[in-house]
Amino acid sequence: MTSDSQKDEVLPRAGVIGWPVQHSRSPKMHGFWLAKYGLPGRYDKLPVPPEDLAAFLSALKTSMASEGFRGVNVTLPHKVAAMEYLDEITPLARRIGAVNTITVRADGTLLGDNTDIFGFLENIREAHPEWRASSGPAVLLGAGGGARAALVGLLDQGAPEIRLLNRTLEKAEALAEEFGDRVTPLAWDRAAEALEGAALLANTTSLGMMGQPPLDLELNALPQAAIVADIVYSPLETDLLRRAAQRGHRVVEGLDMLLHQGRPAFEAFFGLRPDVTPALREAVLAP
Ligand code: ATR
Predict the structure, then answer these.
(1) Residue from 74, 151, 167, 210 whose mutation best tests the ligand 1 pocket (most atoms within 8 A of CB)
(2) What is the pTM of this model?
(3) What is the atom index within ligand 1 of the atom nearest the CA of 146?
(4) How far does the centroid of ligand 1 lie from the alpha carbon of residue 197, in Å?
(5) How far apart are CA 287 and CA 283, in angstroms?
(6) 248 CA to centre of ligand 1 in angstroms
(7) Annotated active-site positions, please?
(8) Which of 77, 75, 117 has the alpha carbon at shortest distance from 95?
(9) Residue of 178, 175, 247 whose CA lies nearest to 204
(10) pLDDT digits (tens, 9 = 90+) for 39-88
(11) Which of 254, 278, 274 is nearest to 43 (CA)?
(12) Torsion angle, CA of 260/266/271/272, rounded to 10 degrees?
């Protein structure tokens, strides 16, 4: 057997690294796409504790690459920590300050990218194609990793102003310092003021997630035309989205953000840009 034919037999592989990673829905999503497009390959949950991250990424370049590994998705708590072990990081991921997709390149080097921005923007666009980031001020709740991706996405798409509402004002102020004067940091008790005249309201905190405290935000000051988005997808319809829909707002669920961020990642691993469809949602939601 020649080495070439041996190479051909190696199944393309990818996976998601996290700690814990048991809850991840990514294997269901990538598994659905592999089957749908009839592609050979597999995508697994890869539990990696923080103390093993460096060794894991080093193995990804060598032994794992020879086993067919094309790359991995990165989830908590590795999105920031992984950056120091990569050979190159896309400018977008560097601005966000986090990677969620690592690909092994032909020469064995590792490239880090962030597809969360694509997920955030594409999710809103697909639900409401007429939406433009430039159409008015956006209100972001939170100042963590999710907020950074949303912030960079909205700024790049021409949002005139982003009002950053966070429990810890200092964190919102630090983001404003970093990203410039289109970002206005506000303490939580100034919510009513923040919502006035806004075109988009997006929650990037874990508030409202199953098992987390509720998101306590009075929506009265939000203009009727504003879109309301939530990155929380468990439950699918959060209390925020339910109350927004009751007030007549167009809403955007968090699950599709997860599905859309997976599209460029799947393409990087398996060579084809997949679609988000109702059947995919169903497969990902299945217990
Ligand atoms: P991620 O990277 O997933 O966004 P994170 O960096 O821990 O996670 O950020 C979580 C966000 O949710 C933060 O904005 C956090 O507010 P603080 O900066 O004040 O910590 C917000 N958050 C989490 N729990 C909260 C709570 N109980 N009340 C208000 N905000 C909360």
Answers:
(1) 167
(2) 0.90
(3) 4
(4) 25
(5) 9
(6) 27
(7) 79
(8) 117
(9) 175
(10) 999 999 999 999 999 999 999 999 888 899 999 999 999 999 999 999 99
(11) 274
(12) -40
